[in-house]
Here is the input.
Amino acid sequence: MGPGELMGVFREDLLAGRVAFVTGGATGIGNGIAHALGRHGAKVAIASRKRENLEHAAAALDAAGIECWFDTCDIREPEQVERVVAGIVEQFGAIDILVNNAAGNFPAPMRKISYNGFRAIVGIDLLGTYNVSKAVFEAWMKDHGGGVVNISAPFEGMGVALQSHVAAAKAGVDSLTRTCAVEWGPLGIRVNAIAPGEIAQTEGVARFGDAVAGSTGGNNPLGFAGATEDIANVVLFLVSDAARFVSGQVFCVDGASGVDAFKMKVEPPSED
Ligand code: COA
Here is the structure.
C-alpha cells in the first residue's frame, strides 16, 4: 500500500466539527498531519516562525478544501504562544486537538554544541511543548476536554550520538506527556506522544542522511521508510473517539527499528 492510499483508512467525517492546532504545521510531518486532520473534517490552525512557509502551506490547505488559519509564532516565547492560541479561539471558537509538532534539530557531538545551541533545542522542543500545551489548556481544554499529541523521538532509554540536546529535550516531552495525561485526564483531556522513525522526504532525514550510517532508506524490519501519512494516521487514531481509553503513552512509529536490538540480517523464509 503506497502513501497515497493510506488516507482512505478512516471515515471522512471522523473529525467533523473539531478544531485542530498543529505547531510547525507548514512543513514536513506537521504539514502532513495538518492535511490529514483537515481531510477528516477538522478546521486547522497552523503556526511556525516563517510567514512565507505559512502562506504557502495555507494556500495548499485551502486548495484542498480545508478551512485554515495561521499566524507566526516562536513557541519559545510564551506571550507569542498566548497571542496565537487566543487568535485560534477567536477565529474558530475552540481548540479540540493540539499537535505539538514544532521542533528544532541539528546533528552535532555534545562537546561541539554551544550553550546557546543546546538551549535553542531544549527551548523549542521541550519548553515550546510546555508553553503551547499550557496555553491551550488554559484557553480551552480545561473547560471542554480535548486531545493532545506530542511529536517526540524514538530515543527513550537510549544513548544517541549527535543528539544530546534533542534526546534530553524529547525525554522531557515524554515525561510531560505522562504527567499531563495524569493531571488532565479527569478533565477529559487525553495526552499521548508519537516517536517517528525514519520518515522519507523530511528535513530530519535530509539533515541526518549522511550522519546515520546505513540506517536510511528503510533499514528496519518492515523494510521501507515511513511516509508523513504513517504518522498522520496514528495522530488521527489517537485524537479520535476510537482511542478514548488511550492516554499517557508514547508510540514508536518506526517499522520496528527501535526494538531491533542488533540490526542483524534476517534471511527471508525459504521454500524448503
Ligand atoms: N551546528 C551547530 N550549532 C548550530 C547549528 C548547527 N548545524 N545550527 C544552529 N546552531 C547553534 C547556533 O550556532 C546558535 O548558537 P551560538 O549562538 O552559540 O552560535 C544556536 O544554535 C541558536 O542558533 P540560531 O541561529 O540563533 O537559531 P534559532 O534559535 O533560530 O534555531 C535551529 C536554530 C537549528 C534550532 C533551527 O533553525 C532548526 O531547528 N531548524 C531545523 C528544523 C528541523 O530540522 N526540524 C526537523 C527536526 S527532526
